[in-house]
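One record is given unchanged without comment:
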Amino acid sequence: MIRENKSIGELAAEIEAAFSRLRRAQLPAGLEPLRYLAPPSGLAARVVLQYKDGRKIKRTADAGYWDPQGCEAIVSFELEEDESDETSEHAANGDSNDSGVENELRDLILALDAAERDVRFVGFVGLKAFRDQFLVGCGLSWAADAEARHYTMAKAINSGLILRTSVPNPNRPDFPTTAVKVNREHPNVKEILRGADADRVVFKPVRIRGRSLSSTVIEERR
């Protein structure tokens, strides 16, 4: 059942994430052949949802426009954007040192949640700009290391915590920009964001020595 208010772009991104999970998913014997559709190492699935006559469905359109009888899904595999094969393989298989990775994933989700509300990102959050600029600027110790950023981002995408999609690039139409967004329907993401909201609700006033700020402001207006 497709939830209400989901866009075609979001639906395509979720299908792409599902393809990436096929590589390591536990499948019943009858569904094992689906594993042949898993993206090879270093590649990512790209899904285009369109009408059978070739007309594309706008990515901003409601997902209700998707009708399996009158539509088709075009699936292709493309190189991961700026991701090394080794990093992608580690993230997909859960290899390497996972010490502290859960905390890093939580940091990443909260940072992307903040980026989606940041006025510097208009309409979408670009993957590279977020990972290599915004995330570094958050002051997280692990994010200062480029390899850690790549690994954590790949792990978040492959586990479905973050959705990746493509948006048109007006300057280079043949090379769309890769965008990322928080998968707010994922149960782990819901738990992370719930905890962050609870922390923000707890307001702890700090006592400042001297006169009240309101008095100072009123005096300066005279």
About this structure: The domain at 97-201 is CATH 1.10.10.10 (Arc Repressor Mutant, subunit A). The CA atoms of residues 77 and 214 lie 59 Å apart.
